Amino acid sequence: MRLLAAAFCALLLAACASGGPKGNKQEAARINTQLGIDYARNGQLQLAEEKLQRALEQDSSNALTYAALAFVYQQRGEAAPAERNYRRSLSLNPDDSQVRNNFGAFLCGRGKNAEGVEYFLQAVRDRRYTTPEVAWTNAGVCFRTQDPDKAEGYLREALRINPGFPDALSQMIALCVQKQDYLRARAFVQRYEQSGAPASPQVLWQAAQAEGALGDWDAARKYQIRLKREFPDSEEAAMMLKTYQTDER
What we know:
Largest sheet: none
Shape: elongated
Radius of gyration: 21 Å
Mean pLDDT: 91
Strand content: under 5%
Oligomer: single chain
CATH superfamily of the domain at 1-93: Tetratricopeptide repeat domain
Helix content: over 70%
CATH architecture of the domain at 1-93: Alpha Horseshoe
Number of helices: 14
């Protein structure tokens, strides 16, 4: 969701940048779309839906409005209207790779992995798409369980484009732990830490697992203590407590 949320922020920028001389209804629709996106970013989904539906009444040809409405439905767990609005958005503007990425993430979340990855690949083939590492990373996430080797290829493409991209690095850590390739997991943990990205419970837990498997119990313990101290209510902290006995000094 973090990647998808980051992608949604770009919709707000697109809404703000789409101003200019227009008819009264089109301008009103643009303003309502912008307000709807802003409400959605703040978690006010009902208000967001109302503004976006009003925008469509004023201008039913705005692809951005459909994309934003799809995101609102997705956040509410309403899959059918979310998919319908994503498809409508892309039918109006089939070259919007930001929406391709968002729709791909939606499809993968619904278990439609092959179709979802195809949208990611369409996005990365678009030379105008400014964040291809996001789509490559999403493709890796989508295929990590189904085809780990293919997932690794996608993640490596993300890191080729942006070697310090934290989301791709964290997914490579998870993939290496999944493959029990703990030395490489350690290396990617080091790269993640060097990227300056904030610690996450997932990375700390996977780092603890990798160091424990490699027999470096001091390093493993440090990650365990950090996980317990910084993210005490996380699922990873609960899993750790079931696996290890960690007593802080």
